[in-house]
């Protein structure tokens, strides 16, 4: 795994002032939570309602991993082990997609940041924090059951139990500092992810409406 990660950038490319300026006026919302917490489902619904662009970092990384290249194979190997792709590559990927869709009314970034360094690097490279960070709070048992069910009906290579448990372990070990960081900066909005989907959506809408 170390060899794979060494070939991918650990530090993001800096953005010039012109590109930073392009992103300063955008509404950027981070949506975080464990695998299976419902981030993708809620982001899709919110994007449709508010005409925001949904950027699912997991989907973007899986697209990169499916490429028949050395880099694609490296990313795939890392993800199948339940580990994290190096932060520099992830942030470069995010910035590329933000800048490609600069006409969007706003962005819902699902699954970023995964660790504290990513949160700080985003602010350093982009020159600003997100407008708000929503965390979907869900029990381990609920997330495992949801992911196992998804694994039975979908085609995600990482939705099998051993990988799920490794992904959850990685998430919990890295997530707490991220949550604390955004809480200290008064950007965090905690939403209980155990409730029915419509109830969760209503609470998410309340958070977005507060930005207007």
Major sheet: size, sense and barrel closure? 5 strands, parallel
Strand order of the largest sheet: 2-3-1-4-5
How many alpha or pi helices?
10
* Helix content percent band: 55-70%
How much strand? Answer: 5-15%
Mean pLDDT: 91
Distance between the termini: 44 Å
Question: What is the overall shape?
Answer: globular
Supply the helix-strand structural class.
alpha/beta
N-to-C series of helices and strands: HHEHEHHHEHEHHEH
Enumerate the spans where pLDDT stays under 50 for 5 or more consecutive residues: 1-6
Count the E strands. Answer: 5
Radius of gyration: 17 Å
Describe this structure in words.
The chain has 212 residues and is an alpha/beta fold. Helix content is 57%, strand content 12%. The protein has helices spanning 2-6, 17-24, 39-50, 57-65, 70-80, 87-100, 116-126, 140-153, 161-184, 197-209, and strands at 28-33, 53-56, 107-110, 132-137, 188-192. It has a 5-stranded parallel beta sheet with strand order 2-3-1-4-5, sandwiched between helices. The longest helix is centred in the last third of the chain and has 24 residues, at 161-184. Mean pLDDT is 91; it is low at 1-6.
Quick gist of this model?
This protein has 212 residues and is of the alpha/beta class. The protein is 57% helix and 12% strand. It has a five-stranded parallel beta sheet, with helices on both faces.
For the structure shown, list the relevant keywords:
alpha/beta; five-stranded parallel sheet; 5 strands; globular
List the helices and strands and how they pair.
Layout: H1 2-6, H2 17-24, E1 28-33, H3 39-50, E2 53-56, H4 57-65, H5 70-80, H6 87-100, E3 107-110, H7 116-126, E4 132-137, H8 140-153, H9 161-184, E5 188-192, H10 197-209
Parallel strand pairs: 1-3, 1-4, 2-3, 4-5
Helix pairs in contact: 4-5, 6-7, 8-9
